[in-house]
Design brief:
The chain is mostly helical. Bound molecules: (2R)-2,3-dihydroxypropanoic acid.
Length: 429
């Protein structure tokens, strides 16, 4: 059984390969996505390291001169996706979107580098590009200078329709949204995709970025949606730690000092995103100052980021235990006890293999082997039961969203074959 799944996972990556970059899934997402590509590289690394590095290298080919790394790279114009390059109009070559995505690339570069004793030249070439991207975050997305990261579009968080964004996005003026036609609903059941209201807000925020000529300083100051994203903040903290490791080999001592002080700043400030009501780390609206008070799968990324006091960790584990009794498969993207939980609706309930990989790694590193094993084991069971879906219902295990999904295939291969890497799922049930 596992061998057949290994073969199927490799086949999915090869089928979704468009020549140097991989689409997340055929049809629904026909371009190169930022954090998808980084995770996909981990899958390729289990059978073709050259191709794995290419995935990250082609992503960085689209980096802007100020270090910004876009969330989509549009190498072909595919009318089956909305919103395509003619809507974003960033004027770049290759054409790209104007927002970014969670910065997992430095972590994945480090893990790939450390899992083999070669590839130095490729890592050395990537290192300054990764550093430039992280500096971009600190320059444009850290308005409080606390190392807490601002998201300026729900799509940037990667957790597009998380209930965490409902209230901040509800305040966005949608009266000037230009007529548009969604393409995703022709391919996927509406029950599993963001609502029409969500899309109106996505497009209103996109138009506002475009009206600001994609000037990131202006967007971070006046954009209609500005939220300190707990997911992005924890992922960047982890990525800064991993980048520091690369800097020790490929960078200067000044760069090491710079990264160390960034890490310290976030460690010292992260309590700003602790929510006493839900006893978890939560996102906070930067415009109103209000916490979402929602426990999501991103709340548990604090373990992956290596932060949290003993008492915060205890409260998070209480939440973890409570949630684990409410679902069959961990880790749901939203709290099953919350009224906005929906087991099949994208980021409002379904389980995502990439989040599971990061959270389980963090739990294992914190010595919480039992919790980590539950997540690793459930990830395996979901894939064995249902195949390589975009996400899964945490109650029934049914697949949700796109099928033959690249990053799920990549996580399977990584899980099955990546012995010795820090994110290894060795010991999974
Ligand atoms: C989509 O089109 O649903 C994507 O998640 C946007 O990045």
């Amino acid at each position: 059984m596992p061998d057949a799944l290994d073969e199927k996972a490799i086949e999915i990556l090869k089928d979704n390969d468009r020549g140097g970059y991989t689409v997340p899934t055929a049809g629904l997402y026909p371009y190169q996505w930022n954090w998808d590509s980084a995770f996909v590289a981990l899958g390729f690394a289990t059978f073709d390291r050259d191709r794995a590095w290419r995935e990250i290298e082609t992503l960085f080919d689209a980096q802007w001169t100020d270090g910004f790394l876009p969330h989509i790279v549009f190498r072909v114009d595919d009318p089956s996706y909305f919103p395509g390059p003619s809507v974003w109009r960033t004027g770049k070559s290759p054409e790209t979107s104007g927002i970014t995505q969670p910065p997992v690339a430095a972590s994945i570069t480090r893990w790939m580098w450390e899992s083999a004793d070669h590839d130095e030249a490729r890592v050395a070439a990537l290192y300054p590009k990764l550093l430039a991207w992280h500096r971009w975050f600190h320059r444009y997305r850290d308005p409080l200078n606390k190392g807490l990261v601002l998201c300026t579009h729900p799509w940037e968080s990667g957790r597009d329709n998380s209930p965490e964004w409902d209230e901040p996005a509800n305040a966005v003026d949608t009266t000037k949204v230009e007529p548009y036609q969604r393409r995703d609903l022709a391919l996927i059941d509406h029950d599993m995709r963001p609502s029409t209201d969500d899309y109106d807000r996505y497009i209103a925020i996109l138009q506002s970025g475009r009206d600001n000529d994609w000037e990131h300083a202006a967007i971070a100051k006046n954009g209609p949606f500005r939220v300190f994203d707990i997911g992005m903040t924890m992922i960047l903290l982890r990525a800064n730690r991993d980048l520091l490791r690369l800097a020790e080999f490929f960078g200067t001592s000044d760069e090491c000092d710079e990264l160390s002080s960034r890490i310290k700043l976030t460690e010292e400030s992260v309590d700003y995103l602790w929510d006493e009501e839900s006893r978890a780390f939560c996102s906070r609206d930067a415009i109103t100052g209000k916490s979402s008070s929602m426990v999501t799968s991103a709340s548990f990324l604090s373990f992956y980021a290596g932060v949290g006091t003993p008492s915060q960790k205890e409260h998070l584990l209480e939440n973890f235990d409570r949630i684990s009794k409410r679902v069959r498969y961990m880790l749901p993207s939203h709290d099953p006890d919350h009224d906005k939980f929906n087991s099949i609706l994208y980021w409002r309930g379904p389980v995502w293999a990439i989040v599971n990989t990061m959270v389980a790694l963090g739990l294992a590193e914190a010595g919480l082997e039992k919790a980590a094993a539950r997540i690793y084991g459930d990830t395996r069971k979901l894939i064995e039961k249902t195949g390589f879906y975009e996400a899964y219902c945490p109650i029934t295990g049914e697949g949700t969203g796109g099928a033959d999904f690249s990053w799920t295939a990549a996580m399977w291969l990584h899980l099955a074959k990546a012995g010795g890497q820090p994110q290894s799922m060795k010991g999974a049930a």
